[in-house]
Amino acid sequence: MSETNPAATAPVTADAAPHRYTAAMAAEIEARWQDFWDAEGTYAAPNPKGDLAGDPEVVARPKKFIMDMFPYPSGAGLHVGHPLGYIATDVFARFQRMTGHNVLHTLGFDAFGLPAEQYAVQTGTHPRVSTEANIKNMQSQLRRLGLGHDKRRSFATIDPEYYKWTQWIFLQIFNSWYDDEAKKARPISELVAQFESGERAVPGGRAWGELTEGERADVLGEYRLAYASDAPVNWCPGLGTVLANEEVTADGRSERGNFPVFKSKLRQWNMRITAYADRLLEDLDELDWPEAIKLQQRNWIGRSEGARVDFPIDGENITVFTTRPDTLFGATYMVLAPEHPLVEKFTPGAWPEGTHDVWTGGHATPAEAVAAYRAQAASKSDVERQAEAKDKTGVFIGAYATNPVNGEQVPVFIADYVLMGYGTGAIMAVPAGDQRDFEFARAFELPIRCIVEPTDGRGTDTSTWEDAFASYDAKIMNSSNDEVSLDGLPVVEAKARITEWLERSGAGRGTVNFRLRDWLFSRQRYWGEPFPIVYDEDGIAHALPESMLPLELPEVEDYSPRTFDPDDADTQPETPLSRNEDWVNVTLDLGDGPKKYRRETNTMPNWAGSCWYELRYLDPHNGEQLVDPEIEQYWMGPREGLPHGGVDLYVGGAEHAVLHLLYARFWSKVLFDLGHVSSAEPFHKLFNQGMIQAYVYRDARGIAVPAAEVEERDGAYWYQGEKVSRLLGKMGKSLKNAVTPDEICAEYGADTLRLYEMAMGPLDVSRPWDTRAVVGQFRLLQRLWRNIVDENTGEVTVADVAESDIDEDTLRALHKAIDGVRQDLEGMRFNTAIAKVTELNNHLTKVGGPVPRTVAERLVLLVAPLAPHVAEELWRKLGHTDSVVHQDFPVADPAYVVDETVTCVVQIKGKVKARLEVAPSISDEDLEKAALADEKVVAALGGARIRKVIVRAPKLVNIVPA
Fold first, then answer.
1. Whole-angstrom Cα distance, residue 501 to residue 495?
2. CA-to-CA separations, 494 to 242, 473, 507, in angstroms, rounded
3. In whole angstroms, how far apart are CA 771 and each of 61, 707, 761?
4. Distances from the Cα of 328 to the Cαs of 389, 462, 769, in angstroms?
5. Which residues are 230's β-sheet partners?
6. Distance of CA 447 to the CA centre of its chain
7. Distance from CA of residue 143 to its chain's centroid?
8. Using CB atoms within 10 A as the burial measure, which of 275, 700, 810, 826 is most buried?
């Protein structure tokens, strides 16, 4: 560390107390120490090797890798709610450094995404220009908070040096397949070798050498972990783009612009995350995550055991997945999702004889009925389609399938409550046991057969039922054929028996199904990572070689998607990249001579860059490999307590519980399987911070008004003479209630803001912002300053006295604070740590006189993780030349932590009659004697005989009179 002393250059303000800790002094101190930390590289975390290697003694320490979730650099900048998690991780990281750890703590920027592209469409400003300006502003705001980041490791996902490796990872996934026998990903070349040697049969039965290049590509596409397929998407002609589910409202319209959104099929890239469903579930058990987050991931993956059952139709099969194969005898019709690919194939030209009028929807032919219903369903979102509406809609497609257990011909319908995204997109409908099927059957006059014996007294006549009866405890009935009978069996045994029969008869098989769908990985936008894929003249996809990475975004004249008639669902999107013909159409030599290719013109979703960014923090300047194996092993490798490896602490909002975390886990597992990393999980410990909320004030029209201009009078709230309502909610620019950290730093200083946000309550709980309460933490710092520095002279006032000459009350207060703050910081209970620091500081104020130097120094060290600027300043004023950042955290003397006495409660008949101050080590026998001799106890007993005395030393005596 440098021997320079930034404290020596502090200015003197001209006021009654020229050296009082004020906002102006805080601002000067903070800016000066931030410059010092940057110049000295105070927060540089050394790697064991490479360009970031450092002090071997530091590398030899236990490591701590602490991360925040990637921030997006918004043009609006930060409000005071944003830094909550950043300050928390900074406090924790500082504490870890002071307890002997090599700490890696840094921050990058997740900078691709729709907001910058929308701004580009509106203004013509290149997304990179606006994004980099936003990053610069955000960096300035974060620096002012004194965050101890290793700035050498920072980056943005839009840096070509970064997204080169995002593209490289995509290619690893594209060139891999999941081996179900080995339970891991393997290079696609190994699968090709199996096909070539005959070790693995080629689907379709032909030899690998007989297939054309296109046929081979199609076969491998069924195995690759990244593959292109026709996928249902949310197509919004009014915006000219495909939307993510999160961008579609519950009524099937775009959040932006309120345009209609349709289900359409487009050629899209997908990630075969479903191959990892079991491993993603199983490995959750080893992660130190909140149980609520684990539950959300388990529910999203949605593992269910059941059977796949084939219903023959016209020489083919409709396959359904069911968790209740024991109810097969009760299946009286089938329902396909409107998008199901077999619908058109099985739809005849005319209605079969005897078709019920209610089944046709009033249409002359099945084809007309199907087309009309499909158009109706396409205008609804998945949320709408799954809503529990009483009025069930659907249409008969004009075909019948065969129930394999009884040979019955069951009509096949399409209905919007069945989705292609779950199971097989087809269900066998058992209306007696499923409420949606029951309502549909009632609406379409379909049979309802009782196959589970009701236990609620309703009887077996389904014509009298008002709803379905579903039970896992009742016994099966009306379920037998010549080969198998389920009658009288409980559900579990019936499921096993019918599954065995299905497999024996070739009508189905036991299987596991997942709610999890493959990850749609395409976006029809400009501002994202280009795919490192080109297509030859036959439309076959080829991976670019690593030597051609990064494939950088080209310039385009227009960032806007082409918009269409909002009501025309048959249009197709036109991507901005497709307009740059010179970039799209290229001649490349991919190893077999120059050929003409066409580039992929979709871009990757904004999730891509955040799927692996923890690895880039480790080795940020490596241009030769994703990450050096030794460096990755050092920071993220498995070890005791971290069986799958990963980041030691990951802090962020619970809103990312499923998608980001699940996608990052998937990428980690693929990279682990292929041998690129030693960690099979990206984040070992997850902590979800709460939200800082703020009051939203709305006028009579429901429009938010500026919170800062609202007045409170007689318990009501007024804005410009009009009464307004108040409700606690989010903080944000659009709600006109945002408070920026810049405002608070200007009025009180960054240390005060840090203390206030940490003191507001437990970190994982949401809490309301109150600017008026910030001053409490400012006064704490002023009292701390006064206990060490004379406000008039600026001289240090501490007393150089021996520890033995310090009064025992002060020593006891000091060591209790050290012990409590240490435990609280380790447990991320920052609010209670601040309370203990406040208690010690107040004790020193009350005692009066010069504070003993050894007490003052340890108090400053306790404050250092929480308020680092003032701690650095006071540490220097106390005569130290090294930064407080790397000092050892104080250790408490156990002799002073234990209370001299504890309060013992004495009860008679359960009512408190006396309280005794006793030694913590008092025995049961001595405590009983003391209680019985107490004057109040004697008076309360009044000479009554004692039947029993219950003693729980040292805190309780319960006397039971006879």
1. 10
2. 45, 12, 16
3. 41, 12, 15
4. 25, 17, 57
5. 267
6. 45
7. 25
8. 275
Cα separation, 633 vs 645, whole angstroms? 9
Count CB atoms within 10 A of the CB of residue 252: 19
pLDDT of 11 > 70? The answer is no
Write the CA distances from 645 to 96, 143, 616, 672, integer angstroms: 19, 30, 16, 11
pLDDT by residue (tens digit) across 687-733?
999 999 999 999 999 999 999 899 999 899 999 999 999 999 888 88
Nearest CA to 588 out of 633, 635, 533 is that of 533
User: Would you say 851 and 798 are in contact if contact means Cβ atoms under 8 Å apart?
Assistant: yes
How is 794-827 classified by DSSP, letter by letter? --B--B---GGGS-HHHHHHHHHHHHHHHHHHHT
Cα dihedral across residues 435, 436, 442, 445: positive or negative:
negative
pLDDT at residue 13 tops 60: no
Instruction: For residue 316, count other CB atoms closer than 10 A to its CB.
Output: 13
Q: Which of 942, 943, 960 is nearest to 951 (CA)?
A: 960
> Taking a C-beta distance cutoff of 8 angstroms, is the pair 956, 904 a contact?
yes
Q: How many CB atoms lie within 10 A of CB 354?
A: 5
Q: Are strands 911-918 and 241-243 parallel, antiparallel or unpaired?
A: unpaired
Q: What percent of the chain clears pLDDT 90, i.e. is strictly above it?
A: 82
110 token code pair: 């997740």
* Residue among 310, 372, 365 nearest 342 (CA): 310
Q: In whole angstroms, give the CA distance from residue 132 to residue 141.
A: 14
Strand ranges in 552-684 using DSSP code E only, listed in sequence order: 585-589, 594-599, 649-652
Question: From CA 828, how far away is CA 685, in angstroms rounded?
Answer: 13
Q: Return the CA Rg of the chain.
A: 35
pLDDT digit string, tens, across residues 660-685: 999 999 999 999 999 999 999 999 99
Contact 890, 922 (CB under 8 A): no
Structure tokens belonging to residue 928? 């009983």
- Hey, what domains does the chain have and what are their CATH numbers? 1-57+740-898 (1.10.730.10), 168-297+519-599 (no CATH), 303-514 (3.90.740.10), 899-961 (3.10.20.590)
Non-local (6+) Cβ contacts of 425 within 8 A are 336, 337, 339, 340, 418, 419
- In sequence order, the 6+-apart residues with CB closer than 8 A to the CB of 492 are none
Phi then psi for residue 842, to 5 deg, are -65, -35
The tokens describing 785, both together, are 């300053």
Q: pTM for the full model?
A: 0.85
What's phi and psi for 134, nearest 5 deg?
A: -65, -40
